[in-house]
Write a structure and sequence with these properties.
Helices cover 81% and strands 0% of the residues. It is mostly helical. α1 runs antiparallel to α2 and α2 runs antiparallel to α3. It is elongated, with a radius of gyration of 31 Å.
């Protein structure tokens, strides 16, 4: 798209120079030095450059959208697979790993300020489950105290 943008900019500058020349000669009261054929050619080149730029630009936007959609579709497919398989089976584990990987990747590409993380694996999900199980069995007071202590040190 950059090459097409440069061509468009050049065509625009040439048209402007042609119009400036016409305007200057008209302001001086002399016969315009610009011929109608020259102006028509400048307009044709501008129109052609604009159409090529627009086509390329839109094509690139569509390609970006397709890449972004593919990331979401991949995550949705793993989520659908996760719903279909039996919990605890190898297929369930594979779907969980895939879904966590997709979510981590989405997080990394969505955070354009480089604050996204894709280094967290399925072990983070397993750790969260362990904490929930301990809390459900009444052993979460120790976690809450540790979290409070950690929050106060920040």
């Amino acid at each position: 798209a950059i090459g097409h943008a440069e061509s468009l900019q050049k065509a625009w500058c040439e048209l402007r120079a042609t119009l400036d020349c016409w305007h200057t000669s008209k302001a001086e009261g002399s016969t315009p030095k610009v011929l109608r054929a020259e102006l028509a050619e400048r307009l044709r080149v501008l129109d052609d450059s604009w159409a090529k730029f627009e086509c390329k630009y839109i094509s690139e936007l569509i390609a970006i959208e397709e890449k972004a959609r593919a990331l979401i579709v991949n995550a949705v497919n793993f989520e659908a697979q996760l719903r279909k398989v039996v919990r605890g089976s190898a297929g369930h584990r594979e779907a969980e790993v895939g879904l966590v990987r997709c979510v981590a990747h989405l997080n990394s590409v969505a955070n354009f300020k480089r604050k996204g993380r894709d280094d967290l694996g399925v072990d983070i999900l397993e750790s969260a489950r362990e904490v929930l199980q301990r809390c459900e069995s009444g052993h979460c007071a120790a976690y809450i105290g540790a979290y409070r202590d950690a929050a106060e040190t920040r």
